[in-house]
Amino acid sequence: MPEIMxxxxxxxxxxxxFAAAVLIAAALCSCGAAGxxxxxTETVTQSETAAKTTDGETQSAxxxxxxxxxxxxxxxxxxxxFYAELYxxxxxxxxxxxxxxxxxxxxxxxxxxxxxxxxxxxxDSSRPGTIHTGxxxxxxxxxxxxxxxxxxxxxxxxxxxxxxxxxxxxxALGGSSVQVTFEY
Length: 184
Known about the structure:
By secondary structure, the chain is α+β, with helices and mostly antiparallel strands.
């Protein structure tokens, strides 16, 4: 009988170790891929037309609502300016209301930069199958992702927009965290 008790204790211990490993793996999954994802403290730039909100993000005093047809934005990173077209969807319109927005985006998987917003945006995610260099997406309801390499994916995203000419984007974003400004 004592031999059976030892085997049961070993079995229970193995189950506990497996469960802990699963929980740790789940905790490390972030923004569409496994990895330790730490949210960078955002850097806020102030201008005459910008006002800092209580959640720390920079937002236009006009909130972008004055011109709802403004779909072309600038994305500034690594000293380079890229022009992007926002898609005509609810999520992109709500994102546009946050502009101008300057954040520190973190690196993930040598193909994307991400940043968690303080507040959620409306999401309507789907699986794109293939990510293209220059895609600007929302993962979940609060994670902005800027992709700088093409690859296949099984993750779901809500499309926000796309950089018109992403040549040089990977160099501008670099291999670590980077300050990125989204503005009109």
